[in-house]
Automatic annotation (TrEMBL):
<keyword id="KW-1003">Cell membrane</keyword>
<keyword id="KW-0813">Transport</keyword>
<dbReference type="InterPro" id="IPR051393">
    <property type="entry name" value="ABC_transporter_permease"/>
</dbReference>
<keyword id="KW-0472">Membrane</keyword>
<feature type="transmembrane region" description="Helical">
    <location>
        <begin position="271"/>
        <end position="295"/>
    </location>
</feature>
<feature type="domain" description="ABC transmembrane type-1">
    <location>
        <begin position="72"/>
        <end position="292"/>
    </location>
</feature>
<protein>
    <submittedName>
        <fullName>Sugar ABC transporter permease</fullName>
    </submittedName>
</protein>
<keyword id="KW-0812">Transmembrane</keyword>
<dbReference type="InterPro" id="IPR000515">
    <property type="entry name" value="MetI-like"/>
</dbReference>
<feature type="transmembrane region" description="Helical">
    <location>
        <begin position="167"/>
        <end position="190"/>
    </location>
</feature>
<dbReference type="Pfam" id="PF00528">
    <property type="entry name" value="BPD_transp_1"/>
</dbReference>
<feature type="transmembrane region" description="Helical">
    <location>
        <begin position="109"/>
        <end position="129"/>
    </location>
</feature>
<feature type="transmembrane region" description="Helical">
    <location>
        <begin position="211"/>
        <end position="236"/>
    </location>
</feature>
<keyword id="KW-1133">Transmembrane helix</keyword>
<comment type="similarity">
    <text>Belongs to the binding-protein-dependent transport system permease family.</text>
</comment>
<feature type="transmembrane region" description="Helical">
    <location>
        <begin position="76"/>
        <end position="97"/>
    </location>
</feature>
<dbReference type="InterPro" id="IPR035906">
    <property type="entry name" value="MetI-like_sf"/>
</dbReference>
Amino acid sequence: MTMRARRRVFMGVMLAPALLLVLVLGVYPMVETLRLSFYEYDLYRIAFAGTPFVGLENFRTLFQDDAFLRTLANTLTFGLVVTTALIVVGLLVAHVLNSEIRGRALLRTVSIMPWFVPGVVAAAIWVWILSPAQSPINQLLHAVGLIQEDVRFLADTSSVGTLSSPLLSISAARIWNGLPLAVMILLAGLQSISKEVYEAAKIDGASPARTLFSITIPMMMPTISVLTALLLIGTVGHFELVYLMTGGGPANLTNTLAVYSYQEAFTNGQFGLAGAASSFILVISAVIGVGYILADRRANR
């Protein structure tokens, strides 16, 4: 056996455990979910009705359900709001952390602290922060005279299109939760830009705003593109904070595809409908991934 062949065998042996985990915990559940979407899998009727093949009937049922259509719109809005905010806020925070300021190491440590907070704890903290009677936000707004009645962040059922106070509230929690990842990736991108470029711009008299839009953002576009794709995919399939904070309520205003699928499967026993709803997460994620790959190829031509 040649040295190259031995190297390939060694690499295969080292990769095999990870590939096996991906197949068992990632690919198999995905394929099984897609398979279930074509069957009538009612947990409460399976003993006498079985699991007959129904083709696209589950998808037809979903598109006739106003609650699902609202959930789909909520998911897309949630993804766009969270991703946009994380890119903007993350870029600002990363720019500060990349500056030569005192206490920079401490600030960098603080910026990644949300990463170490378990999802259940984070949800409990945010529910307390946003509860009408105990909310420190309401107390502050009362103190400065901006409101007369408590703001019902997670209970207000009024909305403008798909935007509502509960959806924006869970978006804020998700932004806080996802900020460390955005900051770390954007900070790495900023540090890859040569300081000589900024020094040349300063000599030419470029203002900070001109430097940001003419140097920083254009040179950060590859990093921003990767981060945007990752954040969109992660947010579209996000479950934990939404389920723990609101369970999809009130009035279906915060329901997302992941929570809707969970409710159909484990509350209503409709695994076929749950599989069909979950497949939309896969389709949206695939569209985002393919869109990123095509854009990246076009940019590198």
